[in-house]
Amino acid sequence: MTTPQQAFVVGLTGGIGSGKSAATAYFEKLGIDIVDADEVARDVVAPGSEGLKEIVNRFGNSILLEDGNLNRAALREKVFSDINEKNWLNNLLHPLIHSRMQHLIGESTSPYCILSVPLLVENKLTEMCNYVVVVDCPETMQLERALKRDGSTEETIRNIMASQATRNERIEAADTVLDNSTTLSALSAQIADLHNTLLALSSD
Question: 98: Cβ–Cβ under 8 A, 6 or more apart, which residues?
Fold first, then answer.
């Protein structure tokens, strides 16, 4: 069996409220395959998955909702205050997520594929990428947008921002920074230009 040719992988990331999802959606409109880490993280704990089976073995059936899906809120409670349980969960899920992302990248048929990961820099997943794109805006704007979108408290959003890489750390890891401090049409214009660059790079 021959292994498929490895796709040209473009890592896409940005802090909470930066507009990473809007950028991902625009690449999808351009016909580019998207490997979304958040979707993959849901897939590896879906009913019937190895991941969910291991979690139930560890925490019991009380960790499930009535429909058999993982009760994420209950799991968060279990691991939030216990570093050992948190480490156990990370050691279980990270390899499963990594393996699933590699599989989906291998299945990509577009000229390049987008690996959309909120914690691309933090989890050192830039190593999986040929090119890294960061969606960026000022931190005050991140906070404002996330508050409007999530309905979370300011303290929660600030805690999430504090747990992520700093704005400078993300920018330093980037090959291209997309400025999303103005309008969505300005963002899409930058992506259209970048798309042409990536088409040229991926065809080399």
Answer: none
In 3D, which of 127, 159, 129 has the Cα closest to residue 146? 159
**What are the E-state strand segments in the chain?**
9-13, 33-36, 113-116, 131-136, 176-179
Q: What percent of the chain has pLDDT above 70?
A: 98
Across the range 64-93, mean pLDDT stands at: 90
Per-residue pLDDT, averaged over 96-111, amounts to 95
Residue recorded with tokens 């704005």: 167
Q: What is the pTM of this model?
A: 0.88
Rounded CA-CA distance 63/73 in Å is 9
Between CA 165 and CA 163 the distance in angstroms is 7
Q: What does the pLDDT read at residue 1?
A: 32
Instruction: Annotate 117-155 with DSSP letters as a single string.
Output: -TTTTTTTGGGG-SEEEEEE--HHHHHHHHHHHH---HH
Longest dimension (CA), the chain: 53
